[in-house]
Amino acid sequence: MSSILEFIGETLEHSSAELVKRFGETKSIQTKKDLSLVTDADLASEKIILDRIAKYFPDDAIISEESGQIHVNRAPGQKVWIIDPLDGTTNFANSFPFFSVAIGYGEFLEDGRMRILAGGISDPIHKNRYLAQRGGGATCNGNPMHVVKDRPFSQCFLVTGFYYTVGKDLDREIERYGRVAQQCQSIRRDGSAALDLAMVASGVYDGFWERGLALWDVAAGSLLVKEARGLVTNYPTIDSKAELASLGTTSAGLSYNLEGEGIIAGTPTVVAQISNLLSGAR
């Protein structure tokens, strides 16, 4: 697994260098069906990553935002790479220096679900590289990292996102935002879910929540938070609320489905409180 982590780190370095080289230049920008943007930089970064995986891990499946296939062979034990070559494309396209590259490496289980074994996120502008492996902890630039010490929700510094949401969906997210904002210290919405999760893992933010994200947005970041001693779960259901109530301040037993509805990540107080607040939203 250490060789996998080294590969992820090296690949992040190559793709990040390509993005930095292109940052601030005139870009070819296209709008996809979901209203999200794609630039020539997304495609150039993705090509670097896909070429390296094809060379060193030709038998592995790939799920990538721009060109990878979602419906891959889910045979038990099949290894899979989950890639976001540029998370925060809108930021990048507008020369706002908050974007990232995310690479997750996992396998399919007997029930067809994915388990992430290793992952990494790069912040190219600030030269931060976040890496984690299942059971092996998480690091930033080689230094061990942990989520912030648990504290009262009124003191928590949070981050979220609304993605490309309009109409009633946007109204719902604004209502949810309001419920949380009434009780925490402050909230940011900075446009790169993968990097937000990395910053939760490194102790900058107390927690993060968002719905409508894709696998490539959360695969690496969810592992980072878990390995940094944080909690990760989906949006609340009747079963998950009972599970959270029984946890107290331990992560034992808390489940997260990469393909489930929404993500809540952070300290025990944040995960429990946001889950409670979101469960009351319409």
How would you portray this structure in words?
Helices cover 36% and strands 24% of the residues. The protein is globular. Helix 1 (2-22) runs antiparallel to helix 2 and helix 5 packs parallel to helix 6 (215-227). It has two domains: 2-144, 2-Layer Sandwich (Fructose-1,6-Bisphosphatase, Chain A, domain 1), CATH 3.30.540; 153-279, D-Maltodextrin-Binding Protein, domain 2, CATH 3.40.190.80. With 282 residues, the protein is an alpha+beta fold. The longest helix is centred in the N-terminal third of the chain and has 21 residues, at 2-22. Strand 7 and strand 8 form a beta hairpin. The termini are far apart.
Essential attributes:
D-Maltodextrin-Binding Protein, domain 2; Fructose-1,6-Bisphosphatase, Chain A, domain 1; alpha+beta; 2 domains; five-stranded mixed beta sheet; 282 residues
Strand content range: 15-25%
Q: Quote the CATH topology of the largest domain.
A: Fructose-1,6-Bisphosphatase, Chain A, domain 1
User: What's the story with the biggest beta sheet?
Assistant: 7 strands, mixed
What count of helical segments does DSSP give?
A: 8
The pLDDT mean sits at 89
Structural class: alpha+beta
What is the overall silhouette? Answer: globular
Q: Which bin fits the share of residues in helices?
A: 25-40%
What's the CATH superfamily of the largest domain, by name?
A: Fructose-1,6-Bisphosphatase, subunit A, domain 1
Walk me through the topology.
Elements (H helix, E strand, L loop, with lengths): L1 H21 L6 E3 L5 E3 H17 L4 E4 L14 E9 L1 H5 L6 E9 L5 E10 L4 E6 L3 E4 L2 E2 L12 E4 L6 H15 L4 E3 L4 H9 L5 E4 L4 H13 L3 E3 L4 H10 L15 E4 L1 H12 L3
Helix pairs in contact: 1-2, 5-6
